Amino acid sequence: MKVLVIGGTGNISRGIVAALQHRNHEVVLFNRGQHKDPPPSDVRIIHGDRQQRDDFEAKVGAEEWDAVIDMISFNADDAASALRACQGRVGHFVHCSTVMTYGPPFSGINLPETAPLQGESGYGRGKVAADNLLLEAHAQDGFPVTIFKPSYTHGPGMNLLRQVGGDGGWIDRLRKGKPILSAGDGLNYFQFLSSRDAGFAFTDILGRANYCFGEIYNIVHPQARTWDEWHRAAADALGVDIEIVHVSQETLIAMSPERFSGLRGNFGHTQIFSHEKLAAALPEFSPQVPVTESVAENIAWMDKHDLVPDSDADDLEDQVIEAVRNLPRIG
Ligand SMILES: NC(=O)c1ccc[n+]([C@@H]2O[C@H](COP(=O)([O-])OP(=O)(O)OC[C@H]3O[C@@H](n4cnc5c(N)ncnc54)[C@H](OP(=O)(O)O)[C@@H]3O)[C@@H](O)[C@H]2O)c1
């Protein structure tokens, strides 16, 4: 198949490109050519900025595509532009949405695709608007869209996240044997899918026209992990021991709203989404990459791009740990 990936050099889309090439598809990318990691040398690139609507639509609309995977559509305007560019010229259009359409706040755990769309973030609302516009085009004109909703997907192209923050300093702390913070009891659940595995789901859904058009699929790791299990996976990948210090979310936010405000949103919540619909649609899809391997790859990418800062230069985490340990307590 001739497949266009809009994006293609980012975190998830890099995994998609690798999977498409593994399956011997002809891959074309549309991006601005600004990403710090170059694409594979044997991939054709159409350079452009999708926000320059006329140019984007002319370039994408100039060719016929067996499939288009849109990785950087965040609102109804982006989706409408992709629709103008692709309608009548694409056999299958996969739109990348997000589980942040469901929350926070989330209406439960193991949420299926039919869960209420109550995500309050601008990001989540923008994705809902994009999804709805494309689903409407499917209902009215048969636009061949499939919507994928990933949860946290890790791999080269993005820092390895932990619950209390997105900077890479925690990797340096682990390497130096320093304790790391974990919010609450460390038992909030998340699903951690590698971008390499995600790439195969995006690739292998292509062409399943008879049942996946007009459908939404969560794309998540079938197994939930606690954040503490995730922290331990990072320590295992680094080959170091780990000391975890649990401090409640409220305490962390009170001590540094700036540093820990992410706990007020996405990262303060257990997030588990059902994998069942995708498992029925793609029974052969099952994540293959061992977590220590995908985490090690992610850390190697951070090292390569100097994204693991010296934790000695930032003592907030030590201060929080010391303050909590030294609180006057009963007993
Ligand atoms: N990672 C997660 O945990 C997660 C979870 C849920 C959903 N998602 C969704 O996954 C998608 C992100 O995919 P990704 O990880 O591959 O992206 P990414 O890491 O953010 O990379 C963005 C890609 O798009 C290109 N790009 C950015 N702005 C552009 C523009 N204006 N015009 C043309 N190209 C542009 C970039 O290349 P240039 O800079 O060279 O243009 C790059 O190839 C988003 O839709 C996000 O909502 C991610």
Q: Which ranges are low-confidence, i.e. pLDDT below 50, for 5 or more consecutive residues? A: none
Q: What is the strand tally? A: 13
Write down the CATH topology of the domain at 2-155 and 192-219. Answer: Rossmann fold
Q: Can you list the strand order of the major beta sheet?
A: 3-2-1-4-5-6-11
General form: globular
Q: State the order of secondary-structure elements, H for helix, E for strand.
A: EHEEHEHEHEEHEEEHHEEHEHHHHH
Q: Can you count the helices? A: 13
The CATH architecture of the domain at 2-155 and 192-219 is 3-Layer(aba) Sandwich
- Using only C-alpha atoms, the radius of gyration works out to 21 Å
Describe this protein's structure.
Helices cover 38% and strands 15% of the residues. The protein has 331 residues and is an alpha/beta fold. It is globular. The chain has a domain at 2-155 and 192-219: 3-Layer(aba) Sandwich (Rossmann fold), CATH 3.40.50. The mean pLDDT is 97. It has helices at 11-22, 53-61, 76-86, 122-141, 169-175, 195-204, 209-212, 227-238, 249-255, 257-260, 276-281, 291-304, 316-325; strands spanning 2-6, 26-31, 44-47, 67-70, 93-96, 145-150, 153-154, 180-183, 189-190, 193-194, 215-219, 225-226, 244-247. The strands form four sheets. Strands 3-2-1-4-5-6-11 form a seven-stranded parallel sheet, with helices on both faces. A two-stranded parallel ribbon has the order 7-10. It has a two-stranded parallel ribbon with strand order 8-13. Helix 2 runs parallel beside helix 3. It is built from 13 helices and 13 strands. Bound molecules: NADP nicotinamide-adenine-dinucleotide phosphate. NADP nicotinamide-adenine-dinucleotide phosphate (NAP) is lined by residues 7-13, 31-35, 49-51, 71-72, 96, 98, 150, 152-153, 157-158.
